[in-house]
Amino acid sequence: MAVGSIMVTGGAGYIGSHTVLQLLLDGYQVAVIDNLDNSSATAIQRVRELAAHHGPSVTFHQMDLRDKPALDKLFASTKFDAVIHFAGLKAVGESVEKPLMYYDNNVVGTITLLEVMATHGCKKLVFSSSAAVYGWPKVVPCTEEYPLSAANPYGRTKLFIEEICRDIHRIDSEWKIIMLRYFNPVGAHPSGYIGEDPRGIPNNLMPFMQQVAVGRRPALTVFGSDYSTRDGTGVRDYIHVVDLADGHIAALNKLSDPSIGCEVYNLGTGKGTSVLEMVAAFEKASGKEIPVVFSGRRPGDAEILYASTKKAELELNWKAKYDINEMCSHQWNWASKNPYGYKPSESKS
Ligand code: NAD
Ligand code: UFG
Hints:
Layout: E1 5-9, H1 14-25, E2 29-34, H2 41-50, E3 58-62, H3 68-77, E4 82-85, H4 92-97, H5 99-119, E5 124-130, H6 153-171, E6 176-182, E7 184-186, H7 205-213, E8 220-223, E9 235-236, E10 238-240, H8 241-254, E11 262-267, E12 273-274, H9 275-286, E13 292-295, E14 304-305, H10 310-316, H11 324-337
Parallel strand pairs: 1-2, 1-4, 2-3, 4-5, 5-6, 6-11, 7-10, 8-13, 9-14
Antiparallel strand pairs: 9-12
Bound molecules: nicotinamide-adenine-dinucleotide and uridine-5'-diphosphate-4-deoxy-4-fluoro-alpha-D-galactose.
């Protein structure tokens, strides 16, 4: 896409903030909307500082995606060339406990966004889907053609939204939609100035391990050591968040291709890494010992999940550049400079 004006929903969050930075560095004007449910406005401020010498700017609008009048007003005041839609709740366990909250926030929020976009004639969308739509795959690497099945309400919100996007494109070919299925985003911007800052106890491996390394938690619990993998622990496709952010720029470029309709791409590295291999890489990068406690498998966890990256490489002309050691070293750079994330200390959280 010729450089233009992009709305980013959920742009204060982990992946969103890194993507907003890459957009600004590439010359896009950006408007972020976020309700700050799982993020901090400081992330946007830091993105602004990192991009200060690059001309284009980012505006921030604290609002909920489901607030249709507010969204409508914003679209009426600014012409957006496309929307990158990150906003959503993402904790798998919480989605099992509170399914209606997830369907309301993620699905109703997306429908509201799509309605307002259509009203204002903005029909280009990049959507954050997830490898969660592959459920527990029997064959790896996962290609985009793999049958879809989600193991929990969070995954189903992604699956439903994908189907909604396919349906609206089916009846209106003006829609150009790219759905990106992320594998496991980790790491942080090499500056160490922005990174992941989850609220409460982290659900995911990297942020949990990071909090062990800075002394906020005593040990990492490894879920399952009896999988049919190299060392018995679960295998995932970890991808550096900056590579992921660049994948969104590639997707925006692809939206200008007249042949694009409603397409889906995996964003991963195509390489599988076990939990213990990740622990070893993080120990090496941080120089810290990560005490480990083994426990049973986490319900709903897949054994091995990694991506086929061929389609994205061929059609988006995008490929992940960073390896596991760089992911861990950038994660540690962020963690050691910001042990309490964007908050100055735990007491203020
Ligand atoms: P995040 O929680 O850091 O970012 C999501 C942002 O959306 C947050 O800033 C939150 O405040 C905002 N938000 C949530 N609901 C909103 C609403 N109704 N209105 C306005 N803002 C709202 O999460 P992330 O890791 O950056 O994930 C971004 C997207 O990528 C999500 O849709 C997530 O499901 C998807 N995804 C993430 C992962 C992962 O492991 N991080 C993997 C696959 C897919
Ligand atoms: N793990 C541990 N201990 C922890 C956390 C995780 O051993 O404290 C293990 C898990 O069992 C798994 C691996 O580390 O084997 C990765 O787990 P994560 O929770 O970091 O990531 P998941 O693969 O379970 O899920 C993530 C996102 C989902 C997304 C999915 C897509 O959380 O939103 O990737 O692949 F759908």
